[in-house]
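Good morning N.,

You mentioned wanting to compare the apo and holo forms, so I went ahead and generated the holo version with 1-deoxynojirimycin. This is what I fed in:
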Amino acid sequence: MRTLYSLIVVFAVPLILAARTEKTTAMEPLSPNSQNDSTANGYQKKWWKEAVVYQIYPRSFKDSNGDGIGDLKGITSQLDYIKGLGVDVIWLSPMYDSPNADNGYDIRDYRKIMTEFGTMSDFDELLKGVKQRKMKMILDLVVNHSSDEHAWFAESRKSKDNPYRDYYIWRPAKNGKEPNNWVSYFSGPAWKKDPATGEYYLHLFAEKQPDLNWENPKVRHEVYDIMKFWLDKGADGFRMDVIPFISKDQSFPDFPKDYDGNFGKVYALGPKLHDYIQEMNREVLSKYDVMTVGEAAGWTLEKTPLLVDERRNELNMIFQFDVVGIDRQRWRWKPWTWRDVKAIYTRYDKALDVHSWNTVFLSNHDNPRVVSHFGDDSPLFRLASAKALATILLTQKGTPFIYQGDELGMTNYPFTKIEEFDDIEVKNAWKAEVLTGQVDAADYIAHLRKTSRDHSRTPMQWDSSPNGGFTTAAKAWLAVNPNYKEINAKQALTDPNSIYHYFRSVIELRKKTPALIYGDYADLDPRNASIFAYTRTLGADKYLVVLNLSKENVAYTLPGALKAGQLALSNLEGKEENVPVVNLKGWEARIYKL
Ligand code: NOJ
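and this is what came out, ligand included:
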């Protein structure tokens, strides 16, 4: 027995290690999970810390069959384009069977592909294409709620003693009204009375998105089985939709007395959240080499380690909305400053030690376009500001998530009337607030021009042909931004000065620079309103990122007698090196090696 063991050690282990090394150097530039390497400042190296992620919203990416709706074959046809950017992981927004009350975030069948998007074999082809290009793909796990058209709910609503009744959250009326005063994200009460039994079911989102009852172990195991189904197919992990909401206080209290209108914060207070996620980790995640990112709606920044500290065995990282949500309260826009954004990055950094990891994102399918939101989308500054923002995205501390089209500098859509929107959130708030006379229609639209989720959902602009080459149909499901003739992928690929090529360069620099991934973070000038200057330091390697976040030229004296060092990358022509004062044009961004 002993001899057999020695033989295995002597002969098999080196072979396994050799195979692994070959895999990591020749094919897989990222650190594998199993490797126990740590960095000079104490981070454990993991592939998902080093990865750059690209989010695809399938409905709007590329239509292959001319029905005006993006689909899986369309994505497969553009994998070289995505790979060309240098990204490692694709996050695919929901592609499951859905009646589309909330564009796929209402799932009718977790093991079936949405008919408009194609078939399971199209999915397999897509995944194969992703793997062939040495990329990975994570899927959206939407299990706080399902569609009301899911077979479970169809059963559940039939009678109080149906075997599926406890798959959802049912309560009798309280004093003839809803069981509590919770509200839905999509306007109105979070409870809906169902005629079959006269009881109410909970829906934190649309009426067609009933909340699943995680108290029921059968529900939890159904979810784990679904996860295994996709992981066994080869998916590399999950982005988990509104994950902090899965546990609910079973007494369903009304909003607390000090409630400030932020209902997400209340919904994220469920007492068993960590038990559930740890169970999910034990049952599923720990058995695979995967990446997990929780959409931590309602979560507070200081509580981040509770979900991501690796010693707790919950998630790898979470999305929080302090930055992207800085200028809005629901659909209302409010003023913001870069100083506030900078302060948030520092708070993240202070809240997380080497055992926790973060995400960096400036947009997604629930937010406006990054260049319109945080940059300047006027013809003069669109290019420079989109590149400056790409610099932040790829040099802040955390795994960066690029949203489709941001690499082209796609802008917000010039919405003028309610009929142009698709989003259920917009339509429901229109009914609840504008049609009831509480809010002026023009005022509402003016806010949505800055805040609507639909800005990011307009189709990808591939070329200058009709509908931006997104579809051959006369009409896309959501109108293409009229600027597609100037802003499109074909133009970007041929123009060496494009935002796309700049993204490629920063991604490339990040990949070969561990300090930009794992390095310690320091904001050098937090009070400065328009200059963002920070360092990333790993052992002896130190990088300075300096950005002018305004359109004015600025002669900026680096703090603390610092000199700029050697230029690693810049978004404009500026070439100064080793100087104490940098002359930055509007939206100029530079990365220096110190
Ligand atoms: C968060 C998703 O990102 C959003 O698009 C969706 O509407 C809600 N969760 C409900 O699933």
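The longest strand covers residues 531-538.

Happy to go through it together on a call whenever suits you.

Best,
F.
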